[in-house]
Amino acid sequence: MPTPLLDLDALSLDDLKRLVAELLVRVSALEDENRALREENARLKGLPKRPNLAPGGMDKATDPDKRSKVKAARRQKRKGGKRTPPATEERTLTVAVPVGSKRKGYETYTVQDLALTPRIIRYRRERWLTPDGRPIVAPLPEEVSGHFGPGVVRFVLMQHVQGQVTTERLLIQLLALGLRISKGQVIALLNADNAAFHAEKDAILDARLATALWVTVDDTGARHARATQTTTHIGDERFAWFATRPSKSRLNFLELLRAGRPDYVINAAAEAYMIDHKVPEAVIATLVEHEHRRFADPPTWEAHLASVDIGGQRRAVTEAAVIGAITERGLLSDTVIVSDDAGQFDVFTHALCWVHAERHLRRLICVTDEQHRLVAVQHHLVWWGFGA
Q1: CB of 231 within 8 A of CB of 242?
Q2: What is the pLDDT of residues 141-173, one digit of tens each?
Q3: pLDDT band for position 61 (50/70/90)?
Q4: Which residues does 175 contact at the CB level (< 8 Å), separation at least 6?
Q5: Which one of 142, 189, 224, 236 has the minimum C-beta count within 10 Å?
Q6: What are residue 309's phi and psi, to 5 degrees?
Q7: Which of 277, 251, 275, 276 has its CA nearest to residue 264?
Q8: What's the Cα-to-Cα distance from 252 to each of 68, 248, 259, 315, rounded to whole Å?
Q9: Distance, first Cα to last Cα, the chain
Q10: Closest Cα partner for 205 from 240, 249, 252?
Q11: Is pTM beyond 0.85 here?
């Protein structure tokens, strides 16, 4: 006969605590009983005893300490992150057995395979001629954007970007698989129709800057398109974003922070920037009091600058207009930009990374004991602030 349900609402706090304690005791007893049954089952089947392994350090992954979470995320990233397992194809194999045999279910055997075979699709597109003489041809499917399908494009991008396979070796692979393709077509697949990738990349930066409390930035020289250019990194513990441009100026950095937007805005933030950078008051008044203060793209902005007198302040007022466009979208208002003290990164709220913040203290020459004590206190605060 089933046990009647208790009216929990009618129980007092002490009664509820007593009930929880009783249930925990029962659960513990059931776990011990279950463990004993598993061990007995293993003994009867002749299985080896479960080894008593030392802790593997996985408990550290749940450490609330921020650095542990960052390390765990990096390990996960190196492993490739979480992937959706491919669909499993089921095949049932039969066997001839003697009469009177008893079926004992199935024994599974898993095989992983990879099919790399060329697939040629010939679309027969209907053609019509309307009574007024207009030709009509059936459109291609949306996924078709050229004479090489999405599978070929995916393979080329994966091999070149993730596998760092050169175009020459990619060509050899594709020809060996049976595709009819040239080196020029491989290069076209790598470079053409990549607007969607750039849009996704800019969207990532835009979304992260909208919520980031801080970002670290740095740049380095890089060879690109047979010329020496600059690769800039922007990121925090959640993302890493890179862009390669011919310039490493402050204007270039600000344009990267726009995350693909080409607009310019003269607003209060732009005016404050021009004041801080000693732009003449007459130039500031000309831009701020003008009827047009928002510009959709560089040509429109350049045409506006050509129509007003800015007195040789083109670089400063352009930087101000880009800052105005960034703040207009609500970005970087509460974000700290952490850098190595390079001048191009000194915008918005700026701070030094711990190495460059601490090195200034090491350059101080102390004379008295009090000065030594004050510098030691500042050293302690720097290391404490950065958690080292």
Answers
A1: yes
A2: 988 888 998 889 889 999 998 898 999 999 999
A3: very low
A4: 181
A5: 142
A6: -95, 110
A7: 251
A8: 35, 6, 12, 11
A9: 64
A10: 240
A11: no
* Structure token pair of residue 86: 């491919």
Q: What is the pLDDT of residues 303-350, one digit of tens each?
A: 999 999 998 899 999 999 999 999 999 999 889 999 988 899 999 999
Residues in Cβ contact with 39 at an 8 Å cutoff, skipping those fewer than 6 apart: 49, 50
What does the H/E/C string look like for the chain?
Answer: CCCCCCCHHHCCHHHHHHHHHHHHHHHHHHHHHHHHHHHHHHHHHCCCCCCCCCCCCHHHHHCCCHHHHHHHHHHHHHCCCCCCCCCCCCCCCCCCCCCCCCCCCCCCCCCCCCCCCCCCCCCCCCEEECCCCCEEECCCCCCCCCCCCHHHHHHHHHHHHHCCCCHHHHHHHHHHCCCCCCHHHHHHHHHCCCHHHHHHHHHHHHHHHCCCCEEEEEEEEEEECCEEEEEEEEECCCCEEEEEECCCCHHHHHHHHCCCCCCEECCHHHHHHHHHCCCCHHHHHHHHCCCCCEECCHHHHHHHHHHCCCCCCHHHHHHHHHHHHHHHCCCCCCCEEEECCCHHHCCCEEEECHHHHHHHHHCCCCCCHHHHHHHHHHHHHHHHHCCC
Measured distance CA(41)–CA(18) in Å, rounded: 35
Do 253 and 209 touch, CB atoms closer than 8 A? no
Quote the Cα angle for 374-378-382, to 5°: 170
Q: How far apart are CA 11 and CA 3, in angstroms?
A: 17
